[in-house]
Amino acid sequence: MKKTLIFAIVALLSANGCKENVEKSASRHLDNAKEAFSKSDYSLAKQEIDSIRILYPKAFGARRQALALMQEVEVAEQQRTIEFEDSMIAVFSAAFESVREEYMFGKDAQYQDIGLYTIRSQDPIRNTGRNYIRGQVDELGRMTLVSHYRGSSYIHHDQIRLNVGDIYVETPVSDDRHEFTDLGICYERLSFMNGNDGGAAAFINANPDKDITYTLYRKTGPDSRKAVSGNLSMSREDRIAIARLYDLSQILLSLDAHRKAREEAERHLSFIRSRMKEGSAQDAVQED
User: CB 116: neighbour CB atoms within 10 A?
Assistant: First the structure.
């Protein structure tokens, strides 16, 4: 009986000692996390907190403090993200303002939610008598290329190949084609919407001072196509116009991306703060 009691006491003391050692070891990681947090090294702070969670599941005191610290780390991370995104929004907003007067802007309030930027020299009304490729960019930065064709009959083109010498790029096949006849002339407008042009706009942007020719194609089967035009030449004016629109597209796409990232950080920050508030309320209830 005495031996059993002695063994029980020893086991209890040993368990208490282990518990104290576990808490002490976990506390070292917690101290490391606090120090990293004070130096704004949020990645290291989170690693130390994760170590407590993984290695010391029974260090309840340290884990509670670690959870509270993790929330502070997440708040600081989101605040830093918001600060960074604000700075990038300012940079790209300034870049946009510096060039916006170079473009025409149009928006039909009745039919359009998003307006379009174009170049005056490529206005379709001023170019009805020729075949050419036109560019436009919406307010979110999405660029569209439109192939304008006119002839005595329809060719039903759905793809374009652009060449600079032996170097070329091809658009994907598009079924976004509008056809109409006016005074016996057949007109086709083939669109590659929202940047889905196979890199054609970027290709033109990279070669505005080089001779670019292009050929119109029509798909004739699952794996076949045929050229429905000869080699057409892009004018220097069109090359420069599309290059300028591509530059605008990159500015507006970046601006939109940073705005979305900021909004996401704001949502995350609001969520974290609501969890912290709920945790404080629960602690208050338990204390009562």
Answer: 17
Q: Which residues sit opposite 146 in a β-bridge?
A: 134, 191
DSSP strand E in the chain: where? Answer: 104-106, 116-118, 132-138, 143-151, 159-164, 167-170, 177-182, 185-192, 213-221, 224-227, 232-233
Task: Give residue-wise pLDDT tens across range 226-251.
Answer: 999 999 999 999 999 999 999 999 99
The structure's pTM equals 0.84
| Rounded CA separation 211/18 (Å) | 79
Above 90 in pLDDT, residue 123? yes
Residue ranges and CATH numbers for the domains of the chain are 2-97 (no CATH), 125-261 (2.60.40)
Tokens of 53: 């969670």
Beta strand 224-227 pairing with 213-221: antiparallel
Amino acid symbol at 229? S
For the beta carbon of residue 64, count every other beta carbon within 10 angstroms: 12
